[in-house]
Amino acid sequence: MITDWNSPQxxxxxTEKQGELLMLLSGQQVTVHTSAEDDFDYMENEDxxxxxxNPHSEEDLLIELCGEFSVFFExxxxxxxxxxxxxxxxxxxxxAVLAGSAGALSLYTEDGWQGTALCTEKPGPDAxxxxxxxxxxxxxxxxxxxxxxxxxxxVYWDPAQDRTLTV
Length: 167
Hints:
Elements: H1 18-24, E1 30-33, E2 48-52, E3 61-65, E4 69-73, E5 76-80, H2 84-99, E6 103-109, E7 112-119, H3 129-136, E8 151-155, E9 163-166
Antiparallel strand pairs: 1-2, 2-3, 3-4, 4-5, 6-7, 6-8, 8-9
């Protein structure tokens, strides 16, 4: 059993959610990986990773069940505590990405890539980049006012929905 001593419960084991998570992903093409594989040798022996194949592009979704829950999509990385609440938020975010109702929002300025956050907003054709950034950017990702030429890129599960907004 993996023990996350930072967890309020102290004995929550993310790997015990494997079956439940596979049921949630049953409509997707999923491959299961362990630390015995070269690409996943950074994981502990009991850890598991699921790769959800994207039928629309090469941008797959990676879910890791380690000492916590981790999700990777495009440049976005979500980290969730090893708690029931963390698991519930992680599955909600995964479902939103797969349904196309959430995307990876990346900010680029003259200094390059500034970071990526999960955005659950679908901007319209006349969307304001600064307003979208204010609504989707998390409090942990402070930014200075957008300079002319900055851009916001939204990447969705289906690339036909991807958007780039320029200031």
